Amino acid sequence: MDKKHQTSIGAGSVQLNLAAINPNWVLEGRPVSHSKLLSTSADGSASTLLWDCTAGRFNWFYDVDETVYVLEGSVTIKDREGSVRRVGVGDWIFFPKGSHAEWTVDDYVRKVAFCRSPMPKPVEFARRVFRVLKKMTGRGSNGAQAAEMFQGG
């Protein structure tokens, strides 16, 4: 089996590596962050990371789409429009590429981040056309099969 189709399994605790926040982004305190890359897609467009951070207030600028799921602790997020939301264990938030948020970590936060580099619009359009053609010729799925896998049905 080639490497891009192998299943990877991690067991036990994950050792995170120091991952400094850009010092120009820090607004208050001395936040210390750590991360660990858990997986990357075969085409390099998607990755999954574990990340944590101690107390502090800082900006974050997103150069990829990122979905965050909070595992431990909490953070207050302030978006570009000034809306403020506290996000805690079990909450998730989506940051599209090009967005910006101000993070305030009162004590500690640990998250899993699902990151994806969006395709350029012409490439995405071509991909959609290709999928439609595959369905029309009976060679592609309608996408429901993957969703069913996670529905328990």
C-alpha end-to-end distance: 28 Å
| Helix share bin | 10-25%
The CATH homologous superfamily of the largest domain corresponds to Jelly Rolls
Low-confidence stretches: none
Shape: globular
Query: Which sheet architecture does the biggest sheet show?
Result: 8 strands, antiparallel
What is the C-level CATH assignment of the largest domain? Answer: Mainly Beta
Number of E strands: 8
| Overall tally of structural domains | 2
Radius of gyration: 19 Å
H-E order:
EEEEEEEEHH
The whole-number mean of residue pLDDT values reads: 85
Structural class: mainly beta
CATH second-level architecture of the largest domain: Sandwich
Q: Which percent range describes the beta-strand content? A: over 45%
Features:
2 domains; 153 residues; Jelly Rolls; mainly beta
Written overview of the protein:
This protein is mainly β and 153 residues long. The protein is 14% helix and 46% strand. It folds into two domains: 3-116, Sandwich (Jelly Rolls); 119-153, no CATH class. The protein has helices spanning 121-136, 144-149, and strands at 17-18, 26-28, 33-40, 46-61, 65-79, 84-88, 92-95, 100-116. Strands 1, 2, 3, 4, 5, 6, 7 and 8 form an eight-stranded antiparallel sheet that branches. The two termini are 28 Å apart. The model has no long low-confidence stretch (mean pLDDT 85).
